[in-house]
Amino acid sequence: MTQYARPESVYSNSGWSAYGAATIPEAIDEEAASDAEYAYTESDGTYFGVVLSEVTDPEGNTNHTLRWRYRSIRNTTPPEKGSGFLYCGGTLIATFIDNAALPTSWTTDAYTLLTTEADAITDYSALRVYITADTIGSSEEMQVSWVAFECPDAPGEPTGTSNLMLLGVG
Q1: Cα R_g (the chain), whole angstroms
Q2: CB 54 within 8 A of CB 124
Q3: 89, 124 contact by CB (below 8 A)
Q4: Which residues contact 61 (CB under 8 A, 6 or more apart)?
Q5: pLDDT (0 to 100) of residue 168
Q6: What is the DSSP letter of 77?
Q7: How far apart are CA 140 and CA 88, in angstroms?
Q8: pLDDT digit string (tens) for 20-53?
Protein backbone atom coordinates (compact mmCIF):
# COMPACT_ATOMS: atom_id res chain seq x y z
CA MET A 1 0.00 0.00 0.00
CA THR A 2 0.94 3.65 -0.18
CA GLN A 3 0.77 6.59 2.21
CA TYR A 4 0.47 10.22 1.14
CA ALA A 5 1.68 13.53 2.53
CA ARG A 6 -0.18 16.61 1.34
CA PRO A 7 0.25 20.33 2.04
CA GLU A 8 -1.21 21.29 5.41
CA SER A 9 0.33 24.68 6.30
CA VAL A 10 2.47 27.47 4.87
CA TYR A 11 5.95 27.96 6.30
CA SER A 12 7.00 30.78 3.96
CA ASN A 13 5.39 32.90 1.27
CA SER A 14 6.66 35.79 -0.77
CA GLY A 15 4.24 36.88 -3.48
CA TRP A 16 1.97 33.84 -3.97
CA SER A 17 -1.82 33.76 -3.49
CA ALA A 18 -4.57 31.16 -3.47
CA TYR A 19 -7.32 31.07 -6.09
CA GLY A 20 -10.58 29.28 -5.24
CA ALA A 21 -9.48 28.50 -1.67
CA ALA A 22 -8.72 30.46 1.49
CA THR A 23 -5.07 29.36 1.73
CA ILE A 24 -2.33 27.97 -0.50
CA PRO A 25 -2.36 24.54 1.23
CA GLU A 26 -6.14 24.30 0.74
CA ALA A 27 -5.70 25.17 -2.94
CA ILE A 28 -3.18 22.39 -3.64
CA ASP A 29 -3.94 19.55 -1.18
CA GLU A 30 -6.61 17.47 -2.94
CA GLU A 31 -6.44 13.67 -2.97
CA ALA A 32 -6.89 13.76 -6.75
CA ALA A 33 -5.56 16.68 -8.76
CA SER A 34 -8.07 19.46 -9.41
CA ASP A 35 -7.44 22.67 -11.33
CA ALA A 36 -10.44 24.49 -9.84
CA GLU A 37 -8.20 25.77 -7.02
CA TYR A 38 -4.53 26.69 -7.28
CA ALA A 39 -1.67 28.76 -5.94
CA TYR A 40 -0.38 31.46 -8.26
CA THR A 41 2.04 34.33 -8.64
CA GLU A 42 2.26 37.19 -11.10
CA SER A 43 5.73 38.26 -9.96
CA ASP A 44 9.26 37.26 -10.82
CA GLY A 45 11.48 35.92 -8.03
CA THR A 46 8.63 34.86 -5.75
CA TYR A 47 8.34 31.67 -3.71
CA PHE A 48 6.18 29.69 -1.31
CA GLY A 49 6.83 26.78 0.99
CA VAL A 50 4.35 24.34 2.50
CA VAL A 51 4.67 21.81 5.30
CA LEU A 52 3.41 18.37 4.28
CA SER A 53 1.21 16.22 6.49
CA GLU A 54 3.00 13.54 8.46
CA VAL A 55 3.57 10.04 7.15
CA THR A 56 5.15 7.12 8.99
CA ASP A 57 8.73 6.20 8.14
CA PRO A 58 8.44 3.34 5.63
CA GLU A 59 11.85 2.06 6.74
CA GLY A 60 12.93 1.72 3.13
CA ASN A 61 14.39 3.93 0.44
CA THR A 62 12.41 3.02 -2.68
CA ASN A 63 9.13 4.24 -4.20
CA HIS A 64 9.29 7.76 -2.75
CA THR A 65 7.62 10.03 -5.32
CA LEU A 66 6.68 13.68 -5.40
CA ARG A 67 3.84 14.60 -7.78
CA TRP A 68 2.66 18.06 -8.79
CA ARG A 69 0.47 19.81 -11.32
CA TYR A 70 1.35 23.20 -12.77
CA ARG A 71 1.30 25.60 -15.73
CA SER A 72 2.08 29.12 -16.81
CA ILE A 73 -0.04 31.83 -18.35
CA ARG A 74 2.23 33.36 -20.95
CA ASN A 75 1.95 36.39 -23.18
CA THR A 76 5.58 36.99 -24.15
CA THR A 77 8.95 35.29 -24.37
CA PRO A 78 11.15 34.14 -22.71
CA PRO A 79 9.09 31.35 -21.15
CA GLU A 80 8.26 31.46 -17.46
CA LYS A 81 10.46 29.20 -15.37
CA GLY A 82 10.08 27.59 -12.01
CA SER A 83 11.95 25.46 -9.53
CA GLY A 84 10.75 23.02 -6.88
CA PHE A 85 12.51 21.53 -3.90
CA LEU A 86 11.75 18.86 -1.29
CA TYR A 87 13.19 19.50 2.17
CA CYS A 88 13.30 17.53 5.39
CA GLY A 89 13.38 20.32 7.96
CA GLY A 90 16.19 22.56 6.73
CA THR A 91 17.94 19.88 4.67
CA LEU A 92 17.49 19.85 0.90
CA ILE A 93 16.47 16.33 -0.16
CA ALA A 94 15.72 16.76 -3.88
CA THR A 95 15.21 19.29 -6.63
CA PHE A 96 12.18 18.21 -8.65
CA ILE A 97 11.82 21.20 -11.00
CA ASP A 98 15.14 22.80 -11.90
CA ASN A 99 14.59 26.26 -13.37
CA ALA A 100 12.56 24.59 -16.09
CA ALA A 101 10.43 26.27 -18.72
CA LEU A 102 6.82 25.86 -17.61
CA PRO A 103 4.11 24.28 -19.77
CA THR A 104 1.22 26.49 -20.88
CA SER A 105 -1.43 23.85 -20.21
CA TRP A 106 -2.03 22.00 -16.94
CA THR A 107 0.62 19.29 -16.67
CA THR A 108 1.09 16.60 -14.03
CA ASP A 109 4.68 15.60 -13.37
CA ALA A 110 6.40 13.26 -10.97
CA TYR A 111 9.86 12.88 -9.52
CA THR A 112 10.92 9.59 -7.92
CA LEU A 113 13.58 10.14 -5.31
CA LEU A 114 16.90 8.38 -5.72
CA THR A 115 17.57 5.88 -2.93
CA THR A 116 20.26 8.23 -1.55
CA GLU A 117 17.72 11.06 -1.44
CA ALA A 118 15.14 8.90 0.34
CA ASP A 119 17.85 7.78 2.79
CA ALA A 120 18.46 11.46 3.62
CA ILE A 121 14.91 11.83 5.01
CA THR A 122 15.40 11.60 8.77
CA ASP A 123 11.96 12.76 9.90
CA TYR A 124 8.84 12.05 7.84
CA SER A 125 6.93 14.60 9.94
CA ALA A 126 9.24 17.42 8.75
CA LEU A 127 8.78 17.24 4.97
CA ARG A 128 8.37 20.54 3.13
CA VAL A 129 7.92 21.59 -0.50
CA TYR A 130 9.30 24.89 -1.74
CA ILE A 131 8.34 26.38 -5.16
CA THR A 132 9.96 29.40 -6.84
CA ALA A 133 8.97 31.41 -9.93
CA ASP A 134 11.37 33.03 -12.36
CA THR A 135 11.10 35.00 -15.60
CA ILE A 136 7.51 36.05 -14.88
CA GLY A 137 6.65 39.11 -16.96
CA SER A 138 3.76 41.52 -17.06
CA SER A 139 0.33 39.80 -17.26
CA GLU A 140 1.92 36.35 -16.80
CA GLU A 141 1.43 33.78 -14.04
CA MET A 142 2.89 30.59 -12.66
CA GLN A 143 0.18 28.34 -11.21
CA VAL A 144 0.38 25.18 -9.08
CA SER A 145 -2.84 23.22 -8.49
CA TRP A 146 -1.65 20.08 -6.70
CA VAL A 147 1.26 18.68 -4.70
CA ALA A 148 1.51 15.23 -3.11
CA PHE A 149 4.35 13.11 -1.72
CA GLU A 150 3.91 9.35 -1.62
CA CYS A 151 5.90 6.55 -0.08
CA PRO A 152 5.26 2.94 0.92
CA ASP A 153 3.36 2.09 4.09
CA ALA A 154 5.39 1.49 7.21
CA PRO A 155 6.06 -2.14 8.05
CA GLY A 156 3.14 -3.66 9.91
CA GLU A 157 2.91 -5.83 12.96
CA PRO A 158 4.13 -9.39 12.69
CA THR A 159 1.58 -11.76 11.21
CA GLY A 160 0.77 -15.45 11.41
CA THR A 161 1.97 -17.63 14.29
CA SER A 162 4.49 -15.02 15.44
CA ASN A 163 1.55 -13.01 16.78
CA LEU A 164 0.46 -15.98 18.80
CA MET A 165 3.95 -16.33 20.24
CA LEU A 166 3.90 -12.68 21.35
CA LEU A 167 0.66 -13.37 23.21
CA GLY A 168 2.13 -16.44 24.88
CA VAL A 169 -0.01 -18.80 22.81
CA GLY A 170 1.43 -21.63 20.76
Answers
A1: 19
A2: yes
A3: no
A4: 115, 116, 118, 119
A5: 47
A6: S
A7: 31
A8: 999 999 999 999 999 999 999 988 889 999 999 9
What is the domain partition of the chain in residue ranges? 2-166
Give the number of C-alpha atoms closer than 13 A to the C-alpha of residue 169, restricted to the C-beta side. 6
Pairwise CA distance, residues 70 & 72, whole Å: 7
CATH of 2-166, one of 3.40.50.11780, 3.40.50.1000, 2.60.120.260, 3.30.160.390: 2.60.120.260
Q: Give all strands of the β-sheet with 91-101 in edge-to-edge order.
A: 7-14, 47-52, 127-134, 81-88, 91-101
Q: Pairing between strand 141-152 and 38-41?
A: antiparallel
Tens of pLDDT, residues 114-159:
999 999 999 999 999 999 988 777 778 899 999 999 999 988 744 4
pLDDT at 125: 97
